[in-house]
Write a structure and sequence with these properties.
Helix 2 crosses helix 8 and helix 6 packs across helix 7. The model has no long low-confidence stretch (mean pLDDT 91). Strand 5, helix 3 and strand 6 form a beta-alpha-beta unit. With 328 residues, the chain is an alpha/beta fold. The chain has a single domain, classed as UDP-N-acetylmuramoyl-L-alanine:D-glutamate ligase (3-Layer(aba) Sandwich), CATH 3.40.1190.20. The strands form 4 sheets. The protein has a 5-stranded parallel β-sheet, sandwiched between helices. A 4-stranded mixed β-sheet has the order 3-2-7-8. The chain contains 10 helices and 14 strands. The two termini are 28 Å apart. 33% of the residues lie in helices and 27% in strands. The relative contact order is 0.15.
C-alpha cells in the first residue's frame, strides 16, 4: 500500500490509546543578557503555547492523520487539565474514559526555548501511584467498552504510573480475545512483561536496555542484529521497529533484521514527541493492512515531517504526501 491508500483506509478506523497523559507547555523567547544574580541567561518571553503530550500526543497524531482516536489516561481537574481538555476537544479525540482526579496535578512538561534552542525543561507531576487506573471506579467496564470499539490499541508508557503490569495483562488479554493489534511504546526501566505484543517501538537506547546490552563504546558499531535477536528471545513481539535517530529505522521480525530505512528528515530541529508520531503512524498503517515495510516507510515519512518542526508536533496527510510542504 502506498501512503495515499494508507491514509484513505485509516479514516475508517478507530485506534485506542492508553497511557500517560500530559500537557506540553512551551515558553518561547530570546536571550537578552546574562543574569547578574547567577551565570545563567535571561530569557525575554515573547509567547507561550500548549499542546498535548505523552499518550495524548499519540492520540493527537492519529487525529492529525484523519483517524478516529480514543484516549484513556489520568489527569487533574486543574488549569493544566482544563487546557488539555480543550486541546483534545478541538481535535475531536474521545477522552470520555479518561479518569479526571481533582486531587492530583496534571503532568506538565514546560520547555524554555530561546529561538531554536531548548535551554531547560521543568516537570510538574504527582507521585506515580496517583495516576494508576487499576482501582479507578468503572475502569474495567470502560476498558472493555473501548476495546470493543477499537481496530487497534496503542500503549504509551512514559513511566508516570498509568501503565501497570495489571493493566498491561488485561489489555493483552482483551486484545487477544478480539485478535487486535496491540502496539507498545515501552519504558525498559519499568521492566513490565508484554510478551507477544503485536508491535513494540523502542528507540536506539531503549532497544539496548530491552536487550540487556550496554551502550557501544567510542568507535564501536551499534549491535543491531544482536539486539533484535535478544529482544525477540525475551519478548517475542510479532514486529519490532527500532527508531535509530539520524540512522533511520530498523524493521525486525522473528529476531531478524528485515529492513533498514534511511531517515526521511531533511532537517532536524526538534525530536520532542517523534516517538509518539512513529507509534501512531506505524500502528495506523498496520491496522489498514499495510505490510511491515510499507507501514515503516509511512511512519518514517511522518517522523521526518515532525522533527523538522519546533516543539511537540504532528504530521498531516498533505505533509506526508508532499513532504516539501512541511513547515516549521
Amino acid at each position: 500500500m502506498n501512503p495515499a491508500a494508507i491514509l484513505d483506509a485509516f479514516r475508517k478506523l478507530r485506534i485506542l490509546v492508553i497511557g500517560d497523559v500530559m500537557l506540553d507547555h512551551y515558553l518561547w523567547g530570546e536571550v537578552t543578557r546574562i543574569s547578574p544574580e547567577a551565570p545563567v541567561p535571561v530569557i525575554h518571553v515573547m509567547r507561550e503555547s500548549h499542546t498535548a503530550g505523552g499518550a495524548a500526543n499519540v492520540a493527537l497524531n492519529l487525529a492529525a492523520l484523519g483517524g478516529n482516536a480514543s484516549l484513556i489516561g489520568a489527569f487533574g481537574d486543574d488549569d493544566a487539565g482544563k487546557t488539555l481538555v480543550w486541546i483534545l476537544s478541538q481535535a475531536a479525540i474521545d477522552f470520555s474514559a479518561c479518569v479526571i482526579k481533582p486531587e492530583i496535578a496534571t503532568i506538565v512538561k514546560t520547555r524554555v526555548m530561546a529561538r531554536t534552542q531548548q535551554l531547560c525543561r521543568i516537570d510538574r507531576e504527582a507521585a506515580r501511584q496517583s495516576y494508576a487506573l487499576d482501582a479507578a471506579a468503572g475502569i474495567e467496564a470502560a476498558l472493555v467498552s473501548a476495546v470493543a470499539l477499537a481496530d487497534a490499541i496503542i500503549v504509551s508508557d512514559y513511566a508516570k504510573g498509568v501503565v501497570t503490569q495489571a493493566l498491561m495483562d488485561r489489555l493483552l488479554a482483551l486484545a487477544d480475545a478480539r485478535g487486535l493489534l496491540i502496539a507498545v511504546d515501552p519504558k525498559p526501566a519499568r521492566n513490565l512483561a508484554f510478551r507477544g505484543a503485536g508491535l513494540i517501538t523502542p528507540n536506539r537506547h531503549e532497544a539496548l536496555e530491552l536487550a540487556g546490552l550496554p551502550e557501544p563504546g567510542p568507535g564501536e558499531a551499534y549491535p543491531l542484529d544482536e539486539i533484535c535477536r535478544r529482544i525477540h528471545h525475551r519478548l517475542a513481539p510479532k514486529l519490532l521497529v527500532i527508531t535509530l535517530g539520524a540512522d533511520g529505522m530498523a524493521v525486525s521480525r522473528d529476531g531478524q533484521v528485515e529492513h533498514v530505512l534511511a531517515t526521511a528528515a531533511r532537517e532536524v530541529f526538534d525530536v520532542s514527541g517523534a516517538g509518539d508520531t512513529v507509534i501512531a503512524s506505524l500502528t495506523a498503517a498496520l491496522a489498514t493492512g499495510a505490510s511491515a515495510v510499507a507501514a515503516a516507510g509511512f511512519a518514517n515519512q511522518a517522523a521526518g515531517v515532525v522533527v523538522s518542526k519546533m516543539g511537540t508536533a504532528t504530521a498531516t496527510p498533505d505533509e506526508i504526501l508532499h513532504p516539501r510542504g512541511a513547515r516549521g
